[in-house]
Amino acid sequence: MPALLLHNARLLDPATGLDAPGALLVENGRIASLTGAPADGAERFDCGGAILAPGLIDMRAALGEPGFEHRETIASAALAAAAGGITTLCALPDTDPVLDDPALIQFIFRRGEASGSLTTLPYAAASAGLKGHDLSEYGLLREAGAIAFTDGMRAIASARTMRLALSYARAFGSFIVQHPEEPSLAQGAATEGELATRLGLPGIPLAAEAMMVARDIALARLTGGHIHFSRVSTAPALDLVRAAKAENLPVTCDTAPPYFDLNENAITGYRSYAKLSPPLRPEAEREAVVAGLADGTIDAIVSDHQPRDADDKRLPFAQAEAGGAGLATLLAVTLARVHAGDLALLPAIAMLTSRPAALLGIEAGRLAPGAPADLVLIDLERAWQVKDGQLPGKAQNSPFDGRALEGRVVATFKSGRKVFSA
Questions:
Q1: Same domain membership, residue 221 and residue 75
Q2: Looking at the structure, do residues 33 and 97 belong to the same domain, yes or no?
Q3: What is the pLDDT of residue 36?
Q4: Which of 15, 207, 353, 366 has the maximal Cβ count within 10 Å?
Q5: Selected catalytic residue, list 58, 94, 216, 304
């Protein structure tokens, strides 16, 4: 592949704080320099003044394969990811069969590589079969390429199992990703409160999240193992994470766009596309999540891509499946908070690039010589609308359906090769 010079760009690299006009040279699939000095015979790509940033790293997505290909395949998810500027993602183990076998870990990685546009880093099941009891084979799974361990959409309910999981993950240089809800309290369809009562929906108390976070922080303190809470959505849970970080405990967390951009009013009218897990929260909790993003308590923003087909959602709200498509909208909804003045641009992009890269221990997520030329070109001002049936990939169940957004991916490059163009 010939060298590629991306010029007339606004270079944005949260890892170094770079935000300046410039050019970037790609050779052999990696960044050669930021000087803009072209190699002989290099192709030229005019960025038109748009932002050139590292490709996004999504720490949480369900890909549907194997077992749920009617919802999504890795190939179709790769299309949606490229349109959203995502070049690396972590795949959840909630598949059929469950990702608790080294051969399946290797399968997921190879399928991502076969797409040509996406690196898929598989999470292995923390417990065998996602049953929450016996641990899976951590050593063999890490050797096969598992990036970390999680029971995906299920909380590890047993404190004993979580204690062992944290200890074993630490021994193998990894960490545990937890769905932070106390399962015995999380059987409802909406956040417990006035709105759920008015709609006649079974409620989930806010405390269900903080209870699990408090327990697992105590176990992280006990074991020294790294716990990562995924999709934190309440002020009490964020306060616990904030305090744990002040104590220098190995505790990190992420959240997803619905929890900082929508509140529980989105389910009014029994709108099942807005039924998520955890459920959408009252406005005060949304504001707390925004504050957690702004002060750095939250380490990463994830898509929480959960593909569902029409039959899963065209049911009475309480029976409809939770989950929303999120790959194509991850960047744009994050930028909505930048446009609103809630977040600065560099820290917002950091939570999509350099900070998840640091958590995962991978070399992507930065603009630096020698780094992979996984890049996204962003037009901050380009307006578009999320429309059911028009999203890339199979999954159309976006909680942002009908939403007008400002900021869009212009092009995505994987190892220096253009894999998406708007």
A1: yes
A2: no
A3: 65
A4: 353
A5: 304
